Amino acid sequence: MASFGKLTNSMVSLSSENTAALVSINIDLSLMRCTPAPEYLPIGTALTKRRKEEAEYGPIHRTACCLGWLFQEVLPETPRLFSAYGKRASKILDQPEINPKGTVDDGPFGPFVGADCTSIWAAATSSPSAIAVHLLTCMLARAFDAKTATSVWVELVRERKSEIEANMSQNKAVHPNTLAAARNTVDRAELSAWDSSARAWLRRADKYMAWQNRQLALIVDNITLPYTAPGGTYRKVTTTWTKCMEALEKLLNNEQHQANDRAIILAISAWHLYPNLLVFQERATPVHFRDEHFQTSAVLSLGLEYAVEKPDEFIRWSLALSHLRYYGDPVEVHSNEDISRVSMPQLWLVALGSIFRMWGVAYFDFEDSLQWFSALGELLKDAEGSHDQSTGYC
Question: What is the β-pairing status of strands 331-334 and 316-319?
Answer without folding.
Answer: antiparallel
